[in-house]
Design brief:
Order of helices and strands: H
Helix content: over 70%
Number of strands: 0
Largest sheet: none
Length: 39
């Protein structure tokens, strides 16, 4: 039972990471573009 719960939370974390990774990468890329304009 405990092991199953761990696997479920891991899959939830993995799904969250999959959802947020592209958003984070896009945001970081945009902020890098914006900061490069100032140099």
């Amino acid at each position: 039972m405990r092991r199953e719960r761990d696997i479920n939370s891991l899959s939830v974390e993995a799904g969250t990471a999959l959802v947020y990774s592209p958003v984070f990468l896009m945001y970081r890329h945009k902020s890098i573009e914006n900061s490069s304009k100032y140099f």
